[in-house]
Specification:
Length: about 90
């Protein structure tokens, strides 16, 4: 979908690949699942937030994981949190 609108899209099969891709060419935005093989999205977020080069990297978290309050608050993970139900309705 993003490619149709002129964006260059890279995909990573696991957290290690995602880490390497972000290190190689700092993207304008990362769409991140928290549940990844090898290195979790939580770990990647912590690493990126702790590195001055990637501290301000916009990260859109898109996951099917039901996040606990603690998980949502990790390193200011969520600026805004919403859920989408199976019928498409939004809940805050």
């Amino acid at each position: 979908m993003l490619q149709k609108h002129g964006y260059v899209v890279s995909k990573a099969a696991d957290g290690t690949e995602a880490r390497d891709q972000v290190a190689a060419s700092l993207p304008e935005l990362v769409i991140l699942d928290l549940i990844l093989p090898k290195v979790s999205g939580f770990q990647l977020l912590a690493e990126w937030r702790g590195d001055s080069r990637t501290a301000d990297l916009p990260v859109f978290v898109l996951t099917s994981k039901d996040l606990s309050r603690e998980e949502r608050n990790i390193s200011g993970l969520m600026q805004e949190h919403f859920s989408v139900s199976k019928n498409g309705g939004r809940m805050r």
